[in-house]
Amino acid sequence: MKLSFARLFPRNRWVSQDGISKREYASYRDYVIHQKAKLPKIHNLAKKREGLKAALRERLPDIPEIARGRSVLCLGARRGGECEAFIERGAFAIGIDLNPGVDNCLVVVGDFHNLQYADHSIDCVYTNSLDHVFDLDRVLGEIRRVLKLDGIFIAEIVRGSRDSNGRDPGKYASCWWNRSDDLLDVIADSGFEPESKADFVEPWNGIQVVFRIVAT
To answer: Which CATH topology does 19-213 take?
Structure first.
């Protein structure tokens, strides 16, 4: 008997602790299947890619570290709109995603829980996909591992359920927060220090935070 999508991935089975909620999966494989299924279901994919690129293009000039020749790794980059925004700034940018689709020259297959790149090799890691992680601590550890010691981590974070102008998790979210500050606390506890913070409203209500690795 073929199980329906709804039976495989119940929408409301969450476990919460300290303001952070995790969707329960029967296994990591089920998590991967769930996340891979999103790309074909996105309506107006090309339009959304252009919207993301245009919005990020407006924010990047405020980050002086994003300069010509810097290396940028974009996590959960789907079709690569964010990569294009960084490339326009002169950076060498590549994205990873569990399902980048076909004929995608900007994004390669990869898993941000187990990055395929060397320790301390990347100038900047960018993601707007922390709501899609399975193991937040592991992903943050991988980001810290691949970043150069003087590199930056740019997180664009959707506003949470109890934030002003926030929202509830979507069908494909696997990690969620009551307030964006709850997530910032977890990131700080993982060895990152916020350097700047800015609100934005496109392509969704959120905050952009630039972090550096805490010196030890």
So the answer is: Rossmann fold (3.40.50)
